[in-house]
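=== Discrete structure encoding ===
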Amino acid sequence: MTLSWDLALEIFGLILGLIYLWYEYHANARVWLVSVIMPIISMWLYYRKGLYADFAINIYYVAIAVYGYLVWTFKREPRNDDSAKKVVITDASLEILSGCAIACASLWYGIWYVLVNYTNSNVPVADAFTTALSIVALWMMARKYTQQWLAWMVVDAVSVSLYIYKGIYFYASLYAIYTVIAWFGYVKWRRLRGVK
């Protein structure tokens, strides 16, 4: 049996995904460095499987990886005493979560519309949903909001079914692991904040 190019990339993507998850779980800025490489691999696979929204979001992933790295390593938040501190893990306010929900719903509709009218996608609802929520979740991650883990739990669970349907089995396995680890990540980030 020969290893196809797609399968080799899928396995390499799985390995990178596990490394990514390790760094994200530990709130390590290196997560963003892996976030530059992994999307390039994913773009190839998603395009070949007709997951056009997943393909397109990986362009965003590369851009947000640069933003996230800069925020996590260089961004300073002002304090009352005029000194500065690094951006820390925190809970998003109700106002921010409401904005995220509105952004997600708007993106979902817009992406779905494009997929239905301009592509041959046979999974426009699920592809648009996981893409829209991923855009929001990744922004939340860059801002170090603990709720990003809950958003990823939903994205990952839906992605498992989507990737099985599309025959991307290693990525389905990766996202099944992501789904479970997302819960533990949420608990860990709350602990890192000092919340039980």
